[in-house]
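README: folding subset

This subset contains proteins for which both the sequence and a predicted structure token string are available. Records are stored as plain text. Below is the entry for V-type proton ATPase subunit C (437 residues), shown exactly as it appears on disk.
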Amino acid sequence: ILAQGRCSSILREHTSCNGMTTYWIVAGACTDESAKENILSTLSGKLGTRVAQDGSPPTHFMDNLKPETALKSGSFDDLINLTDELQKADSQVEGMLRRSERQALELDPNVQLKIFLGESEVEFERYIRNWRWDSTKYDRSRFISQNMRFLLQNMTKFDEEARLSLTRYNELKAQNNNIAKKGDSLPLTARDLIDTLSPDVVKASGGADDDVVTTENLTTVFVVVPRGEDKEFLSQYEFFADADDNEEASLGTDGVVPMSAKKLTAGDKFIEDRDGNTLYRVVLFKSSLGKFKKKSKEAGFSVREFTYSEAGYSRLIADRERLEDLLATDHKVLLEHSRCLWSDLMVSWVHIKAMRVFVESVLRYGSGSGGAQSFVSFLFAPKMNSAAAVRKVLRDVIGKDETKQPGVETGAAAEDDDEYFNYVSVSLTPFTPHTVI
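--- output ---
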């Protein structure tokens, strides 16, 4: 994945979507190498301001595919099959590309997605305008169909690895969320008391004024008292563990320790939630816990069973720090891999686009004599909302006269909402709408 890159996005047919640039790759018939510059000059002049400002002017595309380095397409039947296969591959790679972009943005909304070439990063604009076929990865001695399958095999493998990495990251993130401090926004009846009753708040030194008392027979419970009901609670709580009329009391082993209710504080303030509920501790016999909870609930008070442990709190803090460190490391690695995957997918996708333009141009215009190209291709980004006018210019400048030589209507030629053009046309939108890189 690290081989090629890190940034960019996607390709779709319609011009600038919500301000996002869409590039067009177009091709028309041309058997004279010397005429290519004239065609480019004519095209640039006629397009004029339609590619200015938020667009970019035309430039040659696939100009490095000379006769001696032309792509190997096979027979006519192979070309026909390739048009369908390449369209499917186009959609498949785009889907993986979009997913990798979303993943990178979810990990870091400010992520910089760029193409990685060797040791350097380049913006997509610079990459696409200086694009060259990568013979190192996609050997031109192989047929286009072989390169396409090789590309898909690698990209599918990288995409699956990225999904597994994301799954592992999300599992770790879930573990971290489960033990992370939830803050004081939750009510006292629902929050985990381990952060509320931390060692810096609770007195548990073995003294007479300890907040927590735990012996063989005694235990400490914590009671949430609604706002304004302190007086009612203090007048009733000592009777919450008393025996019912039909029960026999066990002297010395049942009941609440008299006057053990204590309103807890954190620093110089009482512990309370946003609703004004406060927290009391009560010491009682363990055998009376069930009865105390039942009668407290009937009286409108919520008993929170919580076993205070300084050692347990320390272990929790250590676990939190360990998971946070692991999560931060995994986040960094996953983000870098997402950028690399995105770049590899983008580079692969552009190569798929080039294969489509080449195959469909050969179908329309033939292979030329001596292996020379029979077509010329250009790349540019039309100005927003100028698609119709640009299409007319392209039809006039590079379009084939269908009345003299009917062409073959292929996938790329009909890509724009199934509208047929008398030239080859493929488009790419590097980034998804609303995504600002």
